[in-house]
């Protein structure tokens, strides 16, 4: 059991909120467990308890001695160098080989020493598990595949970017290959190639892996089991499958939930009608019997007694079902348009940068084909950031923008939204509303609460008809927090809630699944495909979203 990670009945309270309440988890070698759930469900908290970084309020953890933990913040001093981190990662492998050399020399002098033979065998097993002979070559490969090959080893960590420090911490653990590996959002700061490499490395590990991640492609590629930490009647639910199979199981669960709720509601209706009708029949029979002959009255009394018993039984079942009925399943995230808008042809608004010499408007009697579009760009330039010769966004368009960091994806969305001036021609249909979900969300009044911000932005009537709680983007416990107290992820979810509750004519989304749980990401994608606004442009690195995208794509090199 030394290599098995076991947690029993973990309880952890942070402030006034109980984050984990009696959570148990067993992870044996060969199992790669993904922790999923909404923000605040306790994924990072559970990892810290499993790693021994924090202590639970109650409960126990038994962990392998050889354990590695990837924090969301790299656990290195700023004055350490890349070489220091690399040496530390290779220390165990080098110790393994040195100890094997020592035991080999000892055995040449005492080849029949049973204790030496046993120690040599155990050390050999450990070295083979860690692949210690290959550690230096593996370190070079890992550094290169994670984009660290060109970083000088003498550089101080304080001089590296946050993304480089995160990749360095991950590289150190992959080099070490501990018996148990705990990872918190390991694909942050990784491009597609690096993420696929990390997935291959983790699948090749024979020990325990427990990972908290929002990356659905990663969860599907790596995990043998998923633990859903979202609140449930019987506590966290463990699924023995990857993400694709988990989605199928969740769909089946929801169908069963919806079917049971519908059947109970139908039974409730029948019981209410039965109680009302039979009670009225009892009352009417009672009135008739006052004028009946004695013999018939005895027979009528028996009938009335039977009816009364049926009324009592039905009323008892009705009370029981009303008390224990299954609640309706929560509505998935959906856009809530004010009306069904039919986009009609209209005269386009034209915005030109004055120094570019853009062409004048269309001559009378001629029809510009761009009058059929919502947005169009011609020869648009933002020096050093963006160069677009032509782009049209048509009614009903679903457009995905891809490209490496720095290619200009966010700049393009800002130009389309009218938040950034550009050289060239930007045309928008007259009266068109455009909404942008930016990566950096800033609210003008951080002193207002979430509730006040939502109601003032939408207006009282709209906020009442589309309650914030119905969208599932903001936790009920957070609605009275001031906006300035929210995390980056919470602010983005509030900004998304405003766009979902009152969709614009064109919706521009910059990395929309950042800070969303896998469940909400799935619901958002479904909503965008089925009932989103007139035009949608998305910039995203999300591999799961991109692999399933059905609309048009453009790639910025």
TrEMBL record:
The keyword Electron transport does not apply. The keyword Coiled coil applies. This is ABC-F family ATP-binding cassette domain-containing protein. Residues 83-110, 247-274 form a coiled coil. Keywords: ATP-binding, Coiled coil, Nucleotide-binding, Repeat. Pfam families: ABC_tran. InterPro entries: AAA+_ATPase, ABC_transporter-like_ATP-bd, ABC_transporter-like_CS, ABCF, P-loop_NTPase. Residues 5-259, 369-557 form the ABC transporter domain. It comes from Nonomuraea turkmeniaca. One of its GO terms (molecular function) is ATP hydrolysis activity.
């Amino acid at each position: 059991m030394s290599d098995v990670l076991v947690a029993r009945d973990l309880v952890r309270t942070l402030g006034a909120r109980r984050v984990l309440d009696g959570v148990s988890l067993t992870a044996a070698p060969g199992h790669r467990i993904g922790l999923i759930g909404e923000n605040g469900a306790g994924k990072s908290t559970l990892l810290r308890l499993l790693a021994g970084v924090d202590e639970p309020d109650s409960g126990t953890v038994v962990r392998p001695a050889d354990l590695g933990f990837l924090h969301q913040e790299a656990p290195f001093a700023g004055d350490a160098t890349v070489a220091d981190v690399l040496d530390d990662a290779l220390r165990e492998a080098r110790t393994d080989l040195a100890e094997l050399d020592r035991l080999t020399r000892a055995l040449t002098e005492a080849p029949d020493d049973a204790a030496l033979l046993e120690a040599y065998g155990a050390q050999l097993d450990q070295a083979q598990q860690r692949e210690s002979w290959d550690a230096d070559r593996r370190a070079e490969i890992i550094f290169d595949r994670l984009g660290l090959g060109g970083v000088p080893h003498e550089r101080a960590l304080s001089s590296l970017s946050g993304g480089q420090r995160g990749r360095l911490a991950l590289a150190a653990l992959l080099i070490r290959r501990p018996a148990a590996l705990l990872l918190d959002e390991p694909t942050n700061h990784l491009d597609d190639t690096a993420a696929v490499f990390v997935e291959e490395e983790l699948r090749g590990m024979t020990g325990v892996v427990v990972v908290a991640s929002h990356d659905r492609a990663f969860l599907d590629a790596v995990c043998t089991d998923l633990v859903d930490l979202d609140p449930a009647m019987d506590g966290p639910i463990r699924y023995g499958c990857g993400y694709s199979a988990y989605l199928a199981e969740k769909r089946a669960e929801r169908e069963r939930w919806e079917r049971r709720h519908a059947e109970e509601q139908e039974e409730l209706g029948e019981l209410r009608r039965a109680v009302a009708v039979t009670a009225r029949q009892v009352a009417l029979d009672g009135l008739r019997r006052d004028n009946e002959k004695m013999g018939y009255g005895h027979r009528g009394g028996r009938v009335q007694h039977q009816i009364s018993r049926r009324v009592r039984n039905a009323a008892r079942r009705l009370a029981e079902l009303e008390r224990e009925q299954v609640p309706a399943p929560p509505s998935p995230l959906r856009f809530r348009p004010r009306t069904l808008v039919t986009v009609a042809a209209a005269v386009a608004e034209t915005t030109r940068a004055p120094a570019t010499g853009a062409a004048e408007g269309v001559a009378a009697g001629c029809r510009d084909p761009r009058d059929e579009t919502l947005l169009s760009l011609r020869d648009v330039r933002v020096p050093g950031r963006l160069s677009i010769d032509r782009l049209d966004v048509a009614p009903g368009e679903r457009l995905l923008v891809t490209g490496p960091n720095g290619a200009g994806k966010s700049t393009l969305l800002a130009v389309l939204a009218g938040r950034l001036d550009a050289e060239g021609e930007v045309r928008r249909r007259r009266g068109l509303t455009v909404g942008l979900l930016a990566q950096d969300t800033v609210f003008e009044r951080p002193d207002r609460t979430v509730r006040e911000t939502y109601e003032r932005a939408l207006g009282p009537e709209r906020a009442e008809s589309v309650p914030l709680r119905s969208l599932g983007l903001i936790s009920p416990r957070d609605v009275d927090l001031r906006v300035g107290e929210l995390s980056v992820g919470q602010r983005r979810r509030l900004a998304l809630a405003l766009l979902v509750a009152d969709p614009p004519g064109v919706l521009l989304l910059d990395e929309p699944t950042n800070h969303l749980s896998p469940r909400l990401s799935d619901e958002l994608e479904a909503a965008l495909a089925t009932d989103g606004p007139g035009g949608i442009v998305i910039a995203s690195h999300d591999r799961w979203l991109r692999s399933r995208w059905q609309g048009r794509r453009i790639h910025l090199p």
